[in-house]
Amino acid sequence: MIGFEVALNGSRVCVASAGDTCVLSACVTWVLRTAPGVKEPSDLRLDIGGLSEQTHLKWPAPRKLQVGDEVLVGSSRRHELGPEA
Length: 85
Hints:
Number of domains: 1
Strand order of the largest sheet: 2-1-6
Strand content: over 45%
Number of strands: 6
Structural class: mainly beta
Order of helices and strands: EEEEEE
């Protein structure tokens, strides 16, 4: 199976893998909200998740990122499942 090895600023965050029939994703997202009264107008985040056998998966990650953070996602062949949060 394929897995993702995810690191943030040089430190491993997790290894995500979920079997032979699955979906994996590692997403960095930035949102800017311009509506009046919004408490947090800017949101920069990391999400690692997937879907396996109709089950939604989510791996632990520091969800909030800072400008300048470095996120590295590598793919590799895995022989065992990655732990899920």
